[in-house]
Amino acid sequence: MRRSRISRSGKDKTGRSTPTLCYVPPTLADLRSRLQAGPPLGDAVLALALTAASLALITLPGLEPLARWLGIAPAVTRPPDATGLVLAALCTLPVAFRRSRPLLLLALTTLPEWALHSLAHPTGLSGLAALILLYTASAGRGLAMSLLALGMCVVRYAGYVLLVPGGLFWRGHLAVGTVIALCWLIGRTTRLRRAYLAELEERAARLERAREADTRAARAEERSRIARELHDVVAHHVSVMTVQAAAARRVLDNAPDAARDALTAIEQMGRAALAEMRNIVGVLRTGDPAERAPQPGMRDLPALVEQMREAGLAARLRVEGVARPLPPGIDLAAYRLVQEALTNSLRHAGPSAQAWVTVRYDPGELTVHVEDDGGRPDGKPAAGGTGGGHGLVGIRERVALYGGRLRIGPRPGGGFEVRAHFPLKDGT
Description:
Elements: E1 3-11, E2 17-24, H1 28-37, H2 41-59, H3 64-70, H4 82-92, H5 102-118, H6 126-140, H7 143-163, H8 170-251, H9 256-285, H10 301-310, E3 314-320, H11 328-349, E4 354-362, E5 365-372, H12 391-401, E6 405-410, E7 416-423
Parallel strand pairs: 3-4
Antiparallel strand pairs: 1-2, 4-5, 5-7, 6-7
Helix pairs in contact: 2-4, 4-5, 4-6, 5-6, 5-7, 6-7, 6-8, 7-8, 8-9, 8-11, 10-11, 11-12
InterPro entries: HATPase_C_sf, HATPase_dom, His_kinase_dom, Sensor_HK_TwoCompSys, Sig_transdc_His_kin_sub3_dim/P
Keywords: ATP-binding, Kinase, Membrane, Nucleotide-binding, Phosphoprotein, Transferase, Transmembrane, Transmembrane helix, Two-component regulatory system
Catalytic activity: ATP + protein L-histidine = ADP + protein N-phospho-L-histidine
């Protein structure tokens, strides 16, 4: 089909330009699309080769013994003429379109083959073309359609038996039936194998999508964990630094030495906060667990309580039961809980408050209890403190992550308390 385009080179009587049509030769993409619209190149080559071989067996005298041995030439035949050659070509050329309509082509090619048998013309390779169409139908269609194709081949061969009496002995009929059944079985096996491979590919794709989803979930969980760690570190150290800075400001004029000590404590606290945050954020750069810095745990509670004492909070630590190693997750969660609770006591109750940390090791449970007496009689937060944040949410998440129980609220007799119970397995 010719392609045209509109050109503005023409003009009418009034001087206005008029569109004209000019021919544009087809491009390489057009030729490729036209080729793709027809039969596949391999099928076209197969059909031409099959037709050429079939016509050669019919027309070349030297190949007549081979044709008789293959059973494709009847005992009494007419000399090859145009009718026989056309009918033989009609039996093999449709193989070029075998992928689109194999059943229809199998039915259509039966008619010229029966015509060749009835006219005593050699059939060439029409039987091979029928076997190719049978394989295509059984390999590319469902079970019902493939069985229909098998039945059509049986009917096709039955027509040969009726039209050419005495053409083959019973052994020949058995051999032909075996070949037909094998072609059908090979086609079905090919279809099942393709379906199995497609299922494997789909399963692999589903597993890949599931793996990507798990990876995204793991990344989100890791980001949440790092966010909780950073919040606990920043909230604790910044709160202590704020209290120390407020104390240094108050005594700067009257007691320079005390102010100097407070500034030294602020500097040390800032360095510790930077070091701990560097260790936490370093996990994002190196995914190797061996390169991660050791996380704090219950063994570091004495140092934490002493740090809070230096900040002005009268904190005391009491351990009940026999201390033993804890699972890393529970160890870190319990430490962060105490750190957040003491930070809140320092921030809200003020340096004049008293706080108690009680850790009790039971056979199947770890209990962490942090309480303070309220400190400030007016109930207002200490200087620099804030009344809200994500600390309590982080504590709840940590305790719930390990199946624990948590109580946060006012303490009987005044003050505030945080009590958590972590379940422990036997032997931990």
